[in-house]
Design goal:
68 residues; alpha+beta; Alpha-Beta Plaits; 4-stranded antiparallel beta sheet; 2 helices; globular; metal ion binding; HMA_dom; Heavy-metal-associated_CS
Length: 68
């Protein structure tokens, strides 16, 4: 499980974009989005957090690993 805080995720459209970005890297990942907390949790999947961070940032998302 990997968690991110994505500061520029503000709406349902943003959540869909973040989810699409994660699934483009790892189609088997389960993505849970909490818009109120600007948090994304990626469960399962086969890609490490650093690779997901790079993909999210390359797509324009201000993504940072979150410890909680």
């Amino acid at each position: 499980m990997v968690r991110f805080v994505i500061e520029n995720m503000n709406c349902g459209g943003c959540a869909k974009g973040v989810t699409a970005t994660v699934r483009a890297v790892d189609p088997s990942a389960q993505v849970e989005v909490d818009l109120d907390r600007k948090a994304v949790t990626v469960i399962g999947g086969h890609v490490e957090g650093a690779a997901l961070t790079r993909a999210l940032q390359a797509a324009g998302w201000k993504a940072e690993h979150s410890a909680a």
